[in-house]
Write a structure and sequence with these properties.
This protein is an alpha/beta fold. It has helices at 9-19, 33-45, 87-98, 108-130, 147-161; strands at residues 23-27, 71-75, 136-141, 174-176. Strand 3 (136-141), helix 5 and strand 4 form a beta-alpha-beta unit. Helix 4 crosses helix 5 (147-161). The radius of gyration is 18 Å and the shape is globular.
C-alpha cells in the first residue's frame, strides 16, 4: 500500500545469506525500470551503500545474495485487490485505463492484462542483470477466486511474454495462489 516502511533489501539479503535460504521479494508497484534494474544489481552484486555494483566486487559493504541461493520475484502484493487496504490495485486499475487496456475502473480483465505485462517486465529486467534464469524463480501471483482475472492474467503473460523481439519466452516458473487460513474462512466450505 502507501507505506513508507519495510526492511531494507540489504537486510533481507543479509538474512537470507545468514540462514542459507532463498530470497522472496515483492517488487514495489511504483518501482520504475531504473529501480528494478538497481534492485536486481543489488541482489546479484551487492553495494557499498550507494548505487549497487554492476560486477562482482569482493568485500562489498552490503554483500550480494550468495551464489547458491535463488531469488523468487513477485511483482507487488495482491495487485488484483483494491479498496482502502490495497491501493496498489486501485493504481493498477487506473494505469490499465490510462493505457487503454481497460475500458473503465470496473474492467477486471484489463487490470489483469496490465499486471501481467508488469510481471513480465520485472522478470525480464532480472533476467538481464542475472544473465539468464538459473538463479531466478519467476512468480505469477494469481487471484484464484476470480477466473475472469486469472484467465486474462495468465493469457496475457503467455502473449506478452512470447514477444519475438524480446528473444526467448518469458514465463512464470511457479504460481502463487490465494489460499488463506483462519478468520473462519473454513466456514465457506459449507456454503
Amino acid at each position: 500500500g502507501n507505506r513508507e516502511t519495510g526492511p531494507a533489501f540489504e537486510h533481507m539479503i543479509a538474512l537470507c545469506n545468514a540462514t542459507d535460504r532463498n530470497m522472496w521479494i515483492n517488487v514495489p508497484h511504483l518501482a520504475d525500470a531504473d529501480f528494478i534494474t538497481k534492485l536486481a544489481q543489488l541482489i546479484r552484486f551487492g553495494s557499498d551503500g550507494g548505487d549497487p555494483h554492476t560486477v562482482a566486487t569482493p568485500g562489498a559493504l552490503f554483500p550480494p545474495l550468495e551464489p547458491g541461493l535463488k531469488v523468487y520475484i513477485e511483482y507487488s502484493n495482491e495487485i488484483w485487490s483494491s479498496g482502502f487496504a490495497f491501493p496498489q490495485g486501485n493504481w493498477a486499475q487506473q494505469q490499465a485505463v490510462d493505457e487503454g487496456l481497460a475500458t473503465d475502473l470496473n474492467d477486471f480483465a484489463g487490470r489483469a492484462e496490465f499486471n501481467a505485462r508488469k510481471f513480465v517486465d520485472v522478470w525480464r529486467s532480472f533476467e538481464t542483470v542475472f544473465g539468464g534464469t538459473t538463479r531466478l524463480v519467476r512468480v505469477a501471483a494469481t487471484f484464484t477466486a476470480n477466473n475472469t482475472y486469472t484467465d486474462a492474467f495468465l493469457a496475457e503473460i503467455e502473449s506478452y511474454g512470447n514477444d519475438p523481439l524480446e528473444g526467448a519466452a518469458t514465463e512464470p516458473d511457479v504460481l502463487a495462489i490465494t489460499t488463506y487460513f483462519g478468520h473462519a474462512i473454513q466456514d465457506f466450505v459449507d456454503e
